[in-house]
Amino acid sequence: MSRLPHVKGERIDRDTPVQFTFEGRRQQGYRGDTVSSALLAGGARILGRSFKYHRPRGLLSAAGHDVNALMQVRREGGSVPNVRADVVQVEADWDINAVNTRGGLAHDRLSILNRLAPFLPVGFYYKAFHGKRWFPRWERMFRTLTGLGEVDLRATRRTTPKRYDFCDVLVIGAGPSGLAAALAAADQGASVLLVDENPSAGGSGLYARGGSARLADQTRELITKVASHARIRLLTSTYAAGYYADHWVSLVAPEYLVKVRARSVIVAQGAYEQPAVFRGNDLPGVMLASAAQRMLYHYAVATAHRVVVLTSNAEGYAAALDALAHGVQVAAVLDLRPEPGRDSTIRAAELVSTGILIHYGARPIEAVAGADGGVARLLFESASGAAPGRHTVDVDGVWMSVGFAPANALLHQAGARMSYERSTEQFVPQMLPPGIYACGKVNGVYSLAERVADGRNAGACAAGGIGFGAEKARRATVPARECPTHPYPVFRHPLGKEFVDFDEDLQLRDLENACQEGFDSSELLKRFSTVGMGPSQGKHSNMNALRILASVRGEPIERLGPTTARPMFHPVPLSHLAGRGFTPERRTPLDSEHESLGAVWMPASNWRRPEYYAIAGKSRESAIADEVRAVRTRVGLIDVGTLGKIEVHGPHAAQFLERLYTTRFANLKVGMTRYGLMLDEAGVIVDDGVVGRLGEQTFYFTTTTGNSGTLFREFGRLATWWDLPVGLVNLTGHYAAFNLAGPAARAVLHENTDLDLSDEAFPYLGVRQAQVAGAPCRIMRVGFVGELGYEVHVPFQHAAAVWRALLASGSRFQIQPFGVEAQRMLRLEKGHITVGQDTDGITNALEVGMPWAIKMDKPFFVGQRSLQVLEKQSRRQALVGFNIPSSVHEPRPKECHLVLDGSEIAGRVTSVGWSPTLGRCIGLALVAPQVASRKRLRIRIDRGAEVDAEVIQPPFYDPHGERQRVRGLL
Amino acid sequence: MKLMTCPINGPRAISEFAYGGEVRSMPDPQATGDAHWADYVFNRNSLPIVKAEWWCHTPSGVWFIAERDTATDTIRRTSLYPVWAQQREALS
Fold it and tell me: What's the CATH number where B62 sits?
């Protein structure tokens, strides 16, 4: 609670003070201070309120997991929620408030919940708040009561770049073992990327000192070597959030995300110090010893004046020595064990020589709060040592050093198998997947010398395994001289409030009750009680919860196993994960032409297409109807450039298409086109298009808009499988295409080309290559919308010029550009099916009434054999045309409205609309066969109304296709 | 992200590849009974074994065969179809 004189290695810059506001009061820290260290240096102890009971909370880990010290930070550019006070460096002029309080941190009105705790047992909300009627009310109440920071929707928009990186060996964690591993791998020639979540490398080597400089000096030596090594890159303030297949690791830096591909990964992430569970263990001032040490050495902050060190390992004795070295009084050391371990003995003697009392066989009874809400006294009893018996000691700090849990989440994600090691009371890797290594505390190794040796060996093995130096086997770890972790640091109190999970305010009895209710496996216990589900993801609670579960069940801990560890192992800001979509919208080369003509856009697969062209003062419906009439009576022009356009050539091209389509192509004459229907092996329609023969061995054909990419790919597979070497070129992006249709089409095209357009020279269904408006084009004379029409395919760079030339020539016929809606009506009038609209994933070729397109006598085509089977069976459904004599204003069916047979559903409408040409409503429906043979259909439309439709055989318009062959307007 | 080795382009991220189904030999359509044909069209075995699968490296359009252990999702080997087909023939 005070700033110390200069401490060697401190991260703060005392020449640069930083002024900020906390809970409305001016505060000062130095550059390099975290929010927590600056506040503690200023005398604060309470940093936040707990999630459920709104209890005051202070510093716990100082390692990024202090979930009860989350801040709302107002700064230039907007307000940022849930800033982690224990690790985020404070900046000038920040206005900071603790999250999750009503009326401020000091006088949080919701602290009443602390007194209601007995009425809010584990899982209370599952039992009390599920009633249907009251649920919305409860939901509103809980949404108001719970939650952490607030998102500021007016904050400046920030983009977080995604970067990609590669290395031979990725070392995660730059503590002593990670540093040694990086050096060993790099010395053997591997390029090494070393990452650490802290602002500087060194890990516990820099703060867990035991009052001496030796450990820190050795660590600094390693850091110096790493910094000057040409093959090692060090990324600090960056954590590895997840491990994915084939050594693909996501690294989260403050401003960006890195996706790194390594050839080998070394996990040296160390261990999280674990709290002891006793009444009042959450009071401000009670903290992990490592947190206090981080404060001492990184920020020159003493977190207390007088402390008790609660320990069961050598690290706790080291922390007591660190306290002494910086003038913090040590009221007593409480060792939970009956006697000190081998490494503790020397330190214990050192402490006793300075007059410090050490109690053995100690058990904490209760930490008691003072007037400010922070710890003021500790009640405990001891079995031996200084003075056996029950004691009360006045302190403002309790440092807990009772054990560690390995930070092995990434190892779990990589598929490592763990086993529980009794000599260290922790899980250690038993089997690691190829290319994955673990060293240091995560591997159960604790002394500095052993950690360095373990790291060096892991680095050498990782490099050797991928061809840098000799391949080596991992050496066995040396058994620990003293167990660093207590097997059961849990102390019951009759009044409870022994916190196991600080994120979720879970007490010992909550977990016991959950077990009693039957949730007594680690995964069930987690889900019912929410232990480990808070923002720290159980880093300080999972291990203790598992120990409690094992104790309740009376089974050894290794039988239970930890819960599944999934990415991300530490919460990642959504801003890091959000990004631009990687599905670009495609636009045809005529996009800007449509824009200037007033196009109203609609999505068509991943393209945008004009739905229709808006005209001021005209409704959508009448604009579309006018477009339809223009095509039928004069001439229209539509962009069909979104169609797939594919060229296939080679001696086997015709044979390839014969196998692909139901139609016959072997006898197709050069210069002619033919409609093709494509099926899958089950006989289901997957695509249709027009196939033109440009030469003996060259075909050019179209596919539907949405299918072009996947079909083109599938053609490649089929050509490979069938061993038919054909050249396949996807020209979809290369060619623009538009359809010029209507009685005046020939006249308009004629003005722009020297090509002989007479019926003799260029008959219906012909294909020609010619100059149009000076551009080399492919022209197909097709009946796309049932009028005299030409589909002009233009290299993209000439598209706009040709489009404009045709519009200019067509002006004397009042040429009309038309959109998708008019096209659909025009095609519906002709009874042309739209694959995917009038067919679905199970519509086979026999059901759509196009026997002329299916040549069953061919030797083979995809789907043929299935059609042979289907021919013998009765039809499941049939596509029929219907017509409803009605005015344009009357309610009419919409697509997907149901066709009824009595009270049974007997099909659905697939296409429908009011035809301006025919003056009535027409449509197609996929219906059951018994309905198809009737004269009338009943269709249920909106609001349950029903309409009666007459079944008629399409086409509805120009049944004999005479319009496609007319001479037309000249 | 998983890696896959295209026989032409080498190891690439799995996002560059498209799956084309298990390699299955089509029975002679004209010599096969309806039931057997239906079995070929509709039924797939989902055994956790090493399977030969069609995969396409989409940016380059290369189709090849990957032998993949569907129990562990590990790719044993990739090869171009003619090479794979030849080896299969040699084995049988």
Answer: 3.30.2270.10
